[in-house]
UniProtKB/TrEMBL annotation, chains A, B:
This is Sodium/hydrogen exchanger. It is a multi-pass membrane protein. Belongs to the monovalent cation:proton antiporter 1 (CPA1) transporter (TC 2.A.36) family. GO terms for biological process: regulation of intracellular pH; sodium ion import across plasma membrane. Gene3D superfamilies: 6.10.140.1330. Signal peptide: none annotated. One of its GO terms (molecular function) is potassium:proton antiporter activity. It is found in: Cell membrane; Recycling endosome membrane. Pfam families: Na_H_Exchanger. The gene is Slc9a9. The lineage of its organism: Eukaryota, Metazoa, Chordata, Craniata, Vertebrata. Keywords: Antiport, Cell membrane, Endosome, Ion transport, Membrane, Sodium, Sodium transport, Transmembrane, Transmembrane helix, Transport. It comes from the Eukaryota.
Amino acid sequence: MEKLKKYVSVKDEDHFYHQGAVELLIFNFLLILTILTIWLFKNHRFRFLHETGGAMLYGLVMGLILRYVTKSPDVESGTVYECEKLKSGPSTLLINITNQVYEYQYKREISHNVNGHQGSTMLQKMTFDPSIFFNILLPPIIFHAGYSLKKRHFFRNLGSILTYAFLGTAISCIVIGLIMYGFVKAMVHIGQLKQWEFHFTDCLFFGSLMSATDPVTVLAIFHELNVDTDLYTLLFGESVLNDAVAIVLTHSISIYSPKENPNTFDAAAFFQSVGNFLGIFAGSFAMGSSYAVVTALISFMHLTKFTKLCEFPMLETGLFFLLSWSAFLSAEAAGLTGIVAVLFCGVTQAHYTYNNLSPDSKMRTKQLFEFMNFLAENVIFCYMGLALFTFQNHIFNPLFIFGALVAVFVARASNIYPLSFLLNLGRKQKIPRTFQHMMMFSGLRGAIAFALAIRDTDSQPKQMMFTTALLVVFFTVWVFGGGTTPMLTWLQIRVGVDPDEDLQARAASQSAPNLDKNTTKAESAWLFRIWYGFDHKYLKPLLTHAGPPLTSTLPEWCNPIARLLTSPRAYGDQLKDGDTDYIINNDELTENYESSAHIPVPAQDSTASIQATGKEDIQEGDLGLGGYKLQLQHTAGQPQKNSLA
Amino acid sequence: MEKLKKYVSVKDEDHFYHQGAVELLIFNFLLILTILTIWLFKNHRFRFLHETGGAMLYGLVMGLILRYVTKSPDVESGTVYECEKLKSGPSTLLINITNQVYEYQYKREISHNVNGHQGSTMLQKMTFDPSIFFNILLPPIIFHAGYSLKKRHFFRNLGSILTYAFLGTAISCIVIGLIMYGFVKAMVHIGQLKQWEFHFTDCLFFGSLMSATDPVTVLAIFHELNVDTDLYTLLFGESVLNDAVAIVLTHSISIYSPKENPNTFDAAAFFQSVGNFLGIFAGSFAMGSSYAVVTALISFMHLTKFTKLCEFPMLETGLFFLLSWSAFLSAEAAGLTGIVAVLFCGVTQAHYTYNNLSPDSKMRTKQLFEFMNFLAENVIFCYMGLALFTFQNHIFNPLFIFGALVAVFVARASNIYPLSFLLNLGRKQKIPRTFQHMMMFSGLRGAIAFALAIRDTDSQPKQMMFTTALLVVFFTVWVFGGGTTPMLTWLQIRVGVDPDEDLQARAASQSAPNLDKNTTKAESAWLFRIWYGFDHKYLKPLLTHAGPPLTSTLPEWCNPIARLLTSPRAYGDQLKDGDTDYIINNDELTENYESSAHIPVPAQDSTASIQATGKEDIQEGDLGLGGYKLQLQHTAGQPQKNSLA
């Protein structure tokens, strides 16, 4: 009893004082510092350090302080106990200590450097669970990328983006894998590494995780300077899809297990991995889109048969948020890739659900995701900085790190230049040499590479990969991120481009839409014309109140069903929708989204947000791959139509 | 090596598949269900089940399913291992298993019912760390309460609210403690309990945690029906402050440790506890307000000397959010009470910082906190439902539960009726009998009681308290929460009251402001006139751009400092501020806040949010305890002034 009492009182104190509060406070403090710094930089138009770079820097300093100032090693943690009966490490350990059973949870494997001095309790607490990254911090970032995708420009460059994302990432993965295998062989040769530690699959694993580019710094500068829209779209589209590809690739490689010698090539296992890749990608895509379709249907329902959910913007926003997050979680739970699911969920939500939301909810969802993206991104970069000093099992191997830097650079080059050459054979609007150099330069590594590396740090090879990935992220974010503005000047890439004007000018110079002889382009146009027709005729009317009513698009014998599924508001919109003058408002969502985020509004000028609210009411148009000229003429001819919306 | 390989591959699978995703998905699913249900209920104006009650119900059902359907006991967890050398349970355990060191983290003490069948892995995963409640879920709820406090009505009833909150909670705590002590004695008498398990301090501890009322259900219905503003304010104010008092009380009691027999009264220890209570309360109050003052100063700086942070609403919102949360975390880290700190931080932020924010940030912060409050509240209530079946160490003792229900009821009665009687002696505007009955009826228990109980479930008495607290929450939320509307009808309390009209009518009927003979009232008025003068003359000009410039309020020799600290905009506002016609806009924040939350706006009507944005620009007035009539005459006489703002 005496023991119990004492034990309880000790626990009490721990419970009532700052359980986890100090750790969170440190993050808050770092984020506050970062925000104040960004504010200062923005005022002085200083563009050499992006907020993420700043967050990382502060994290680094804080990690250094925590590491060398708070030297309060946990006395107990130094002692290693032996339990004869235990043969393996169970996830939950029940231990009988002086007739009282205590439950312990598995945390990690300590493979080397077990000494009490290195791991102060504080440091241990600052390293949080990788599952927090994957389940809580990453989804808002990826969703935001999908939700704010500039659809019009994206689809115009879809072929190139897909090529860079799929083929390019595969090339990058293989090149990094091969180069690293070479370095590993060299390291074994000079005795730095034992042969068995690194298989070729491990090198490929490293290659796939290092292939996820994250040019958030570059894109922020591009946006601020209004860099050429095509370049922006190519880079943004590539980086968004490339993350998805790299994640699925990493997953596929990690479950590739050849039956015999891991260094030989096993065709069956290889094709199984390829199949896995395709299956996981398609499955995640389907999962993400179906959640978005469900959201669109629910938010559509209130507009029609049922009463209005949009009368309660809080519920609407909540539902939107929860269903989008569920897309991620369901995919993860089903063994698919949540990141891919939430990315396509975001794209689909923007395409369908956004049209059904009440004006208030449109604003709320945009601001909410924007805010969550901002916070999550900075938390991750702060944490990266911290991790350099707080992570306990770093393995710094200079040769491996040097090899990784070389590999990343070579891999990026063998991705961008050959593919750009091939694409230019097919593209009418060539990708200029300067754009290729800029894309080459923008191969920054960031949150996804880090998250993939930290997901598994149980064995020594994985720990070495983690350390190396972290350093590559630091190097690329600071060096390439900081060099973006000088590079733009040096390459003489045009800035200050208005995306809409750009598109208009290009549409005007392009005489006949979709009638070029070029096969690649014609094919993708053909594919998208079919998709566009299907989307416009069936999906949009079914899922939103934009587009023609189903009664006019479905065959006559379907009329009863069509009538049942059509919103009464769609009938009213019939006249408006016949015209195509909404296309110009296609990027309404994205524009407002980003304008509220970045473009400074004069202080105390409440008209800015009023305008934003008012503008959103205009329905987002459908995507069209061709026929810009026609649409633009419509708009120019009947400007009063727009004001009716 | 073979072992390592196998181990890694097993871990890999665990890492890549749904680590934590399923648990989060279950919560998401429950919340989605809850939102859809609320939506249905709101449409049918069904008020017997509030969203929180619904969330709890769904949680309960899900807990039942998880408990009895997922019968997959973890094979390993059933085995209890022995470690001879271990003498106590360290927080981190390093264990050598077949020459590999693994780290395990302390989870809990298993005091009874150790059998493999009861604890499936799923159930274990669903019970999350109490520190998540305290550090992440509770702060937004409490901050939101402070930020949305109807200041005008609150200060008018401040005396009564403070009496109920401080004296009432103390009475409630002691009464529950005494009654429970009686029940415990009885239980010992009939042999259900061993004497040593329950001291009188434990009973007081239980009393203090059960004293935190949470009438969220009742308040939501009050708001929807526009129940009498005084009743609403009394109940809301009491419940907000009462949480703070109960938390500090619980903390003080838990650290009360008499030197000798725990059942005897130790005067020194008692006074130390009282001192602790006062110190912690005052310290937390100071901590919370100073963070808010810092936020106000930072957001004020951009308006004046430095360039504009309000040009970047995202940074402004982020800073506001992080500093408010830091108030909570710093208080916790300093051994104070975060809830109290964040509450007063919210009140102060609304009073000062809100005036400095850009219109966009005003809207963003309101919507953000509203949304977080909504989510956090429903997550907590869902979790309470789940906890009934997923928590592993419940101790159901019918007599103790019955005792607790009786005690809660009696304690509420001995809080409300005697204090109302005393207050009515001093109040000009008496608290009618029906209001007292309604307040008695609204003594629901909720999130805070649960959070305090779950914070410590290490020993058997604490586990019994937790189980009992949980059941009391269920009972009061469903029975009293569901009975609110019938009770309002039965007591014939007036509904459909417009708060502003109500205040005007009352002000008009009140002839001479602050000249009543009543001592209690005069005293508090005197106190508040001093505070009001100080706030209006020095704090408001220093922290916001509302109020007269410091140059006119400070003595002449301070002019250089005053000029340095005064916003250029304040000079411009000088003329306007001389008038008192802003007082009527005092509750601008609260009104807009709640109108956007609850009052349905017609679908597709974007004017509603435009108006809200526009209106915020009007400066929030200062609080005044008297002189309503004068101010109202001003407003009535010069309506054009208001439109200038």
